[in-house]
Structures are given as structure tokens and as C-alpha cells.
Amino acid sequence: MNDSKNLILAVVLSALVLIGWTWAANRWFPTANPPSTKVEGGKQQPLPQPSAQPAGPATPKQVQSVSTALASGPRVRIQSSSLSGSINLKGAQIDDLVLLNQRQTISKDSAPVRLLSPLGTPGAYVAQFGWVASGTGQVPPLDATWTADQPVLKPRQPVTLTSQTVDGTRYQIKIGVDDGYLFTVQQSVTNGSAKPLNIRPIGLVSRAQKSHDPDSWTNHVGPIGLFGGNADYSVDYKTLDDEGPQPFNNASGWLGFTDKYWLTALVPQSSMNAEFRRSPSGGYQADYALAPVDVGPGQTSTTETRLFAGAKEKAWLDRYEEAGILKLSKSIDWGWFEWFMRPIFNLLLGLFHATGNFGVAIICLTLIVRAIMFPIAQKQFASMAAMRKIQPKMKALQERFKDDKQRQQQEILKLYQAEKINPAAGCLPILLQIPVFYALYKVLLVSVEMRHQPFVLWIKDLSAPDPLTPVNLFGLLHFTPPAFLAIGVLPILVGATQWLSMKLNPQPMDPAQAQIFAIMPWFLVFIMAPFAAGLQLYWMTNNVLTIAQQWHLYRKYGLHLSDTHPVHT
Amino acid sequence: MIAKLMILIAKAWQKGPSQVLPPSCRYQPSCSAYAITAIERYGAARGGWMALKRIGRCHPWGGQGYDPVP
Fold this sequence. Notes:
The complex is a heterodimer of chains A (569) and B (70).
Chain A (H helix, E strand, L loop, with lengths): L1 H27 L8 E4 L2 E4 L19 H6 L3 E5 L3 E6 L4 E11 L8 E5 L8 E9 L13 E2 L3 E2 L5 E6 L5 E8 L4 E9 L6 E11 L14 E6 L2 E3 L4 H7 L2 E6 L1 E6 L3 E7 L3 E7 L5 E7 L2 E3 L4 E12 L2 H9 L15 H18 L2 H30 L3 H10 L4 H15 L8 H19 L42 H16 L6 H18 L4 H24 L4 H4 L5
Parallel strand pairs in A: 3-9
Antiparallel strand pairs in A: 1-2, 3-4, 4-5, 5-6, 5-7, 7-13, 8-10, 10-11, 11-12, 12-22, 13-20, 13-21, 14-15, 14-17, 16-19, 17-18, 18-22, 19-20
Helix pairs in contact in A: 1-11, 5-6, 5-9, 6-12, 7-8, 10-11, 10-12
Chain B lengths: L1 H14 L1 H4 L6 E2 L2 H26 L8 E2 L4
Parallel strand pairs in B: 1-2
Helix pairs in contact in B: 1-3
């Protein structure tokens, strides 16, 4: 009775998994990056990447192309090994920035990812610094035209922008850039008028659209900041739509917007009044105002702010943290298990630098995990070998209590205890492996280092699902199967190796559980299909190593398959 | 509230992963059953801690056999 109930439950659960999985996975649990390639006519074609291609109207203003906008006014070029773009002298806006080391698609000649775009273009996204008058005095309007002392901004060659108001006060913005993603912005004001001046330095980041990357409970995308030492992932675009502006007063830290891989963050030196809000034009804005400063006639006041605008690459984030930007690496939403994710991520990056290929690094990670787990398997097999000696006693017990399963189980456990052996390894070894798997899932999901990283053959992006599927005859038929049917080669290999490794494992005594065992590998194929190829690779390698380990241990202890596959009583 | 959530997790473990994993229980009752009883009897904090300690000794060098919630 109980057995059939279990079986029905298993069938119902299985059906639910098959039908609901794709839907549920997309809804709550982003499985992988969108596919970056598609196999068509036997050839692999790069697909456009949504997160790298802003689309749709930016503001109610006339929409123009980026190249038109860039040609329309005086600009200072930005040129470094990581960044390229320009500063708009009208408004002193940094509004044109591409990330040279990140490409839009996996194709080698693909254009670099554009982070910032001028106002009025699709996906407008700008950073701006200035002042507001809090008492007396004049400040340059936000659309003032500034003059520059250099035509090009390069590392170690800062540019100073100057604007003078009619009352003789000189405002200067000195912008420097490093080889990574950090701008240093010194704002200084020299009061040339006869009256004292009371002003507040401000800075803002404004974007016309929400991110194309999904915000989910495993990864925050949207307004982000660090206030008073704590990273804040709670403000979403929807919060700003529904509840209005979100202020953080008298806070020190940083604020801006994050996409999955890209970040803009304003980092003032002193305590600020920060706010996230919807801008009147329909976009979103993160801004701060510093405390008002008094500047007497003839005096100069200077404040310094840093602006991070780029990819959330660990090496740079770490360096900027060392340079005093508190917890900038928190801009990656590692979640609760950060303490565990980071060591795995560091290990994986180390393996990547050692081997030069992320797929090989994942295989090495699997090897390390299995090596740590090996003594457990060895101990388990030693126990199994010892079990042969007590086989007659076992048989006797099974015979004696064959009508009382519960009692039989208890007596067998007692026998194990008396003989000091136990073929079961316990649940701790299993539970310990789950965080490793979750950490890898998370690393593949959030880290820009894993973006567009190839393995071998047809795996061109480990952070996206396997694109090669037998459903359309490996791309020979010209149709793209629906998501829940697009089962790649890797997940099929995962299922096959899982089936084999389960065959080699001790078999369950309970026939209903044996049934579940028999179907489980084939469900795994469907479940793993939408996940990142890197995760599929990890699972498959894990299975292969398990099989190799079982085979080795069977031989080492002179066991036969029948020793671990007792005849059902 | 937290206790209920913890029990739910233990039950989900029993219905889900535990069904498809190779039999691994060294103890009776199983760790998940132990956790449910312990949390029901001693609450989330103490019961949860007892369950954690039980899982902590559920490995090849740990104990085995009949080990009910005290």
C-alpha cells in the first residue's frame, strides 16, 4: 500500500517537474545566461546579447542615434586600455563609454559593450557632477558648456573643465581616469565675487531604462548602494515606480545602478544625502548632495568624488577596495552564502589563470572536490568488503524478520553496530557537496569573468546552456526548438553518466525507491538542460569521476557488483 | 514560525533529494526524522542545534545505529 502510494507520488512529482520546470525556473530561478550562440546549418552563429544592446525610446525627447548625438557638440575623448568614449562638454557629462575588454556577443569581431550613452539616444545612461546653490551665489546650470584644457583624457593625464559665472566665480571639474574603471573627479570652486557663497556639490547617475537583465531572488539588479557599511539590495526599479524616491540621509558609502555584470557607482569622500528616484523624463536616477559649504570671497573649496563605471571584475573591485572604496565588491550580490562563494570563486579564478580555460578550471575544481571526498568513498568500500563476512548473519536476519520491515531494519543496524561496519556513508558528505554546487551556479550566474568563456568544441560560452541539441539534428534542421525541448548534448551526457554511476552504487531495497532510481537520471536531463553549460560540465565530470572511483574501489577491495546489489527479499 | 519552516525543509528533503540519493542513513531514525522530532520537542533553536550536531556525526567515522531524540 505504502509502496504504491510512493510510486504515485513519484509519478505525479515527475510530471510536475517536466511540465512546470521551465516555467518555474524562468520565474524564480534564473538558470543561465541567455544563449550566446545558436547552431544553425551546422554552423554556430553568435546571437545578439540583450544586456549589451539597449533598445527602445529613452526619453520623450527626440530619439537619435549614438553617433548623431556624439557628433553634435564639443567633447573630450576618453582613452585607456579598458575604456573608450568621451565627455560631453555641454553639462560636463560622462555620457559615452564602452568597455573595451567586454564584447557584445561571443564573436571576436563583435563591438565592445556600451555602458554609457548620451541623453536622447536609446538606452541613455549618463554620469554628471556639479553644484547646487543652497544659499547665495550662482552656480553653472546643469546644461552649461564647459571648456577643457586637454582634448583627450588618458590615465595619468587628467582633464580640467572650467566654467565661469557672470559674477566671477570659477568652477572647475578635474577628471582623471585609471587603467581600469575608476574616474577621480575633483570639483573646486573659487569665489571671485565680492559676496560669500553657499553651495552643495552634487553628483548623479541617470539612466533612461531599466536593465535588460532580470532581477531575481538569487541576483539583485537595479539601484544599488552601500550606506553606513551595509550594502543595500532592497531598492528595485519597481520600488521607485510604486513608492517614490528612496532617500538615505547622512550616509557615507556609494550608490549607483548595477546590471548583472556592469556597475556605475558614485563614491563621495564625505557623508552625503543620497537618493534613488524616478527622473521627470521617465528614467531613473541615483544622486547625492554633500553638506553645504561656505566659500568666502577669494577662497577656494575642493571636494573629491570617485566614479566607478565598468564591469564588475574581481581584480579591479578588490583593488578599489584596497584604495579605500568600502566594500565595492558587495556590488556583486553573492547572497547569504558569500563566505562560502568567495573561496570557491577565488579557487576557480586561480585554476583559470593556471590553465587558461574555464572549462578545464571547472574540471580541476571537480577533481579537487572528489579528492577531498575520496577517503569517504574508500571507507565506505572497506565497509562493503567487510560485509561479505557477515553475509550469512544478514541472510539469517532477513529471513527471521521478513514480515516486519521496521524490525528487520533495526536488527540489521544492530548487527552493523556490533560488527563495527556500515556501508552507508551518512548524509554529511552529501550535504557538504551541495554548497559547492550552489556556489558554482552562482559564480556562473553573476561573475563577469565567466561571461563568454569557452571550453572546447561547440561549448563557446560556459555561462549559457549547451546550444547543440539533437532535437533539431544538431542544427541541421532550420528550426529553434522551444526552451523546454532544447536539450543539449551535455545534459544528455549528464543523464547517461548519472545512470551508470547509480548502477554502480548500492541499490535501494525498497522497490518503489528502485523505480524512482530508474527514472531519476532521465529527469535530470530535463532539469539540467536550461542550466549553464559550466554547471552541466561540473555534474558530468563529477559523475565520470564517481564511476572511475567506484570501478577502482571495486577492484581494490576485490568486490563484485553482486556484493553491493543484494538480491531483493 | 522558524521551527515550522525548518520542519518544512526537512520534509522537503525527505520527499525530494533523499528519494533519489543512494541510501546513506547510518542512524535510526534518519537525520531528517530526527530533526523534525527534535524541533517539535525542543523548538527551533535547541532542536535545530541538536539536528545540526546529529548531521555532524553522520559520516563514515561517526557513530551509527539507534539514536533517538533524547
